[in-house]
Amino acid sequence: VEEQLANTLKVQRAIHDLTQAELAERAGITRRSVNAIETGRMVPSVLLALKLARVLGVPVETLFALDGGSGSAPAE
Amino acid sequence: MDSETIERSQLFDRVQRRSMVALAVITLILGGAGLTLALTPAGAVGNPANLQWWLLPVVIAALARLLSTAGGRHFAPDSPEVKTLLQDEWRRSNLLRASRTALVVVLIGQWPLGLALGFLTHPQLTPPRIASAMAAGTIMLGVVTLVSLFLYYNRE
User: Fold this and answer.
1) Residue A36: count of CB within 10 angstroms of its CB
2) Closest CA in chain B for residue A42
3) Does A36 touch chain B (CB under 8 A)?
4) Which of A3, A19, B5, B144 is deepest in the core (most CB within 10 A)?
């Protein structure tokens, strides 16, 4: 089974009441990047994943986890 | 939250996409002119009376100025929104993907391009003219493929 990266970015963003543009500005990336990560089209680098986790104030495992294979979905 | 910065970032993103489209159009026009010149030097494009070549740098400078300004705002190369966009991971990976594909397209395109220009043109072109036409065709193909694919990959 092919492993994919699942993320809870959209949920975390909603919890923190942030728009894609606001999250992008805080993380120093573009809104397109946030959109691409949320829709699963982009797998962020470790650096970017850690940056997003720091901005949202959650552990990186809460945001990203392996989906399929032996991994599990991220905790919400 | 600095809404001004967000607004500027989004505006610059639109400016950047518009610039890419303009680059593709300019390349098509210049490449088309180069190709026509190589294929039919005695035609309208090759006639010096029809051309105002001195206008070319002026037009390019005016376009560059126009494209770096949007809504009365000028985007300096060291401004935060420009830096953010240029260092953006998604944009860079899309640019890399597009350039890889464009390279393959250009390499594969050499064969039909060479065949068409070398054998299918009438009257037969001289080797320097074939080389010029190949260069114009290759640059046009490469840049247009690169820009189109980048805009496609980088869409929402």
Assistant:
1) 24
2) B90
3) yes
4) B144
For residue A67, list its beta bridge partners. A4
Q: Which of A6-15, B3-12, B88-97 has the lowest mean pLDDT?
A: B3-12
Q: Among candidates A70, A62, A66, which has minimal Cα distance to A10?
A: A62
* Candidates A9, A32, A42, partner chain B, best to mutate (most B CBs within 10 A): A32
Tokens of A40: 């699963």
Cβ-defined contact of A32 to B90 (cutoff 8 Å): yes
Kind and range of the H or E run holding B7? helix B3-39
CA A64/CA A50 separation, integer angstroms: 10
B13: tokens are: 């993103």
Per-residue pLDDT reduced to its tens digit, B56-90:
777 778 777 776 666 667 777 788 888 888 889 99
A67 touches chain B (CB under 8 A): no
Q: Which residue of chain B has the CA closest to A45?
A: B89
CA distance linking residue B129 with residue B43, whole number of Å: 14
